[in-house]
Amino acid sequence: MKPSLTLYLAAPRGFCAGVDRAIKIVEMALEKWGAPVYVRHEIVHNKYVVDTLRDKGAVFVEELDECPTDRPVIFSAHGVPKSVPAEAERREMIYVDATCPLVSKVHKEAERHSENGHQMVMIGHAGHPEVLGTMGQLPEGEVLLVETVEDVADITPRDPEQLAFITQTTLSVDDTAAIVAALQDRFPAIVGPAKEDICYATTNRQASVKAMAGQIDALLVIGAPNSSNSRRLVEVGRAAGCAYAQLVQRADDIDWRAIEGAKAVGVTAGASAPEVLIDEVIVAFRDRYDLTVDQIETAREDIEFKVPRVLRETA
Ligand code: 2E6
Ligand code: F3S
Fold first, then answer.
1. Are 219 and 209 spatial neighbours (Cβ–Cβ below 8 Å)?
2. Mind listing the pLDDT tens digit of every residue in the chain (315 residues)?
3. Domain C-terminal end among 70, 100, 130
4. Any binding-site annotation on 78?
5. Domain hosting residue 292, numbered range
6. Which InterPro entries match (predicted)?
């Protein structure tokens, strides 16, 4: 006899509108121009998605100089520094920008503040492609990066009266609130968005993890190790009281011994994880348990982003 277990699926989970659009852009570019189409950086941080697109003819590279000039190139959903499209233009390449519109919005905010004479503080994770892209909207030295509350004490702005802040879109809502409070405390004149620039998908996925945390013995987050929003879901789960919260790329990664004895397990997925991987996890649980599947829904999402016109025209 199999032990009984309830699997609680978080909703919303998985693909957001920006990821959906970015993947469509690669697929439509392959239809329009044929293979190979080059993609600068993983289009979204998910191995399954990248492998599937590679099978269809996408070639993933890290830098533009790895692309030939006679093939189209797509910039990933995380955004690129201004120097990248500028270089593509200089090399007379065809390029399509798959930057999520909510990341582009932050790019514009940074430019607007800078035009108004404000030096920028960005809250985000050093080295993450979105952070490199957003900081790269302005000349070097114009954006000061803070990763933690402690970092706030260490920055030396040119003029504390002329400061503005922006954030990465995939941060922990609670950790970011504490950093914003520390910035406002040290620099009372700092200006910025009403709260932060964390996107709806990140916010909603964190809220659904918090809502299920009290009912589960363990949490599995389907997502990649380089996916910021997915990693934040693990942290949110732990902070909300889940003794065991683990990131898994797919069913094979599940450590079954670690969840032995659990009666209720929560499953969610980062914004770049496709639903097939969630289905795969459910099947793996069904193989081992007498399973009940339930959903904990805390929001509904109906946001869609249009693909760029150059691809809509062919479609
Ligand atoms: C672009 C911007 C934000 O690591 P991160 O969470 O940023 O990226 P992905 O690809 O895991 O998630 C989607 C995404 C794209 N989020
Ligand atoms: Fe965009 Fe947020 Fe998704 S910034 S790509 S909607 S995780």
1. yes
2. 999 999 999 999 999 999 999 999 999 999 999 999 999 999 999 999 999 999 999 999 999 999 999 999 999 999 999 999 999 999 999 999 999 999 999 999 999 999 999 999 999 999 999 999 999 999 998 999 999 999 999 999 999 999 999 999 999 999 999 999 999 999 999 999 999 999 999 999 999 999 999 999 999 999 999 999 999 999 999 999 999 999 999 999 999 999 999 999 999 999 999 999 999 999 999 999 999 999 999 999 999 999 999 999 765
3. 100
4. yes
5. 4-15+199-297
6. LytB/IspH (IPR003451)
Q: 242 labelled as ligand-binding?
A: no
Distance 202 CA to ligand 1 centre (A): 9
Residues 31 and 93 reside in one and the same domain: yes
CA distance 308 to 248: 33
**Which among 8, 7, 10, 5 is positioned nearest to 209, based on CA atoms?**
10
How many structural domains is the chain composed of? 3
- Residue that terminates a domain, selected from 186, 217, 251: 186
Residue 231 lies in a domain: yes
Task: Calculate how far, in angstroms, residue 287's C-alpha sits from the geometric centre of ligand 2.
Answer: 33
Distance (angstroms) between ligand 2 centre and the Cα of 101 equals 8
- Domain of 58: which CATH number? 3.40.50.11270
Catalytic residues: 130
The response to whether residue 137 sits with its C-beta less than 6 Å from ligand 2 reads no
Written as six digits, the tokens of 250 are 């797919």
Distances (CA, A) of 69 to 30, 55, 203: 16, 22, 39
Residues 96 and 42 in one domain: yes
Residue 224 included in any domain = yes
Q: Which residues pair with 165 in a beta bridge?
A: 121
Is residue 10 lining ligand 2, measured as CB closer than 6 Å? no
4 is an annotated ligand-binding site residue: no
> Do you find a cis peptide bond into 12, omega within 30 degrees of 0?
yes
